[in-house]
């Protein structure tokens, strides 16, 4: 049988002090109590493995030490499972519990989930999205802090996003720093995503970073193929188009890893070697990127770090509108050839 949970009265009895004094000490308000008394109470609490009752603490402080996470499809998508892990880790480190609701982007379900969380008096709500875009969220009481995770909203909620601009610059620099200039192509140009935040809140920044890095180096793209479905089939078709239309192709920037998967297939079928003939870089760091041969160099979306930052921001007490950009690390593998070694 599981042992009974120690109570404040148990700690008081073990320490030989009143419940009032014990409560003051354990809540870090030991007014006019000696160091010896404080030490005695804390020792008794440790011996009994005493933990405050969250419900009782909530009544006294108005805080339930509970965070709500409402997501569209994060919990059922393997690509962003790290986001959940980050939220749980950050909350756990701060002795908070997380209530999770999945809504499938249905506003009615979001409203129901939010109502349930308000009934449980959560200390704040994180709205998490699988794909970063602008969305509408239900109306929320003004005294409940809200953070958007991997997404934005027309309201003034604080936002945590991947730093796509610097990732774009970084991916382009991987090629430029290895001697690539002429012959760089891009697969995945997506005008609607660049122009409309409701399609994507970050893709435009990704392409802006690529463009600025290339422009600073005086490099122009040899080709830019528009692709509206960032899936392997589109990558296969775009890769075939590049091989048939671009002379002197040396490198391809893929807008995401799934396009790169398709490109790999076409290149293999046509005996185009990566990276000996053409280098390839990408974005996302999908799990499969490490298993491709050669391994794919890509910018990782920092889902776990973003989840942690969202909870940190939520519980920090600063509810002012702000945008936190989390760096996207470049994961370098074997898909890029260093052309400098073959110069001269």
Question: What features would you describe in this structure?
Answer:
- With 344 residues, this protein is of the alpha/beta class.
- The protein has three domains: 8-51, no CATH class; 66-162 and 303-326, 3-Layer(aba) Sandwich (Rossmann fold), CATH 3.40.50; 164-300, Response regulator (Rossmann fold), CATH 3.40.50.2300.
- Helix content is 39%, strand content 16%.
- A six-stranded parallel sheet has the order 2-1-3-4-5-11, sandwiched between helices.
- Helix 1 (8-15) crosses helix 2, helix 1 packs across helix 3 (35-47) and helix 7 runs parallel beside helix 9 (203-216).
- The protein is elongated, with a radius of gyration of 26 Å.
Radius of gyration, whole Å: 26 Å
In the predicted model, the low-confidence regions spanning at least 5 consecutive residues are none
- Give a quick account of the main beta sheet: strands, pairing sense, barrel closure: 6 strands, parallel
Looking at the structure, the CATH topology of the largest domain is Rossmann fold
The strand count comes to 12
Multimer state = single chain
Mean pLDDT: 88
Q: In which range does the helix fraction lie?
A: 25-40%
The proportion of strand residues reads 15-25%
Strand order of the largest sheet: 2-1-3-4-5-11
Name the CATH superfamily classification of the largest domain. Answer: Response regulator
Assigned CATH class of the largest domain: Alpha Beta
Order of secondary-structure elements: HHHHEHEHEEEHEHHEHEHEEHEE
Structural class: alpha/beta
CA(first)-CA(last) distance: 78 Å
Sum up the overall morphology in one term.
elongated
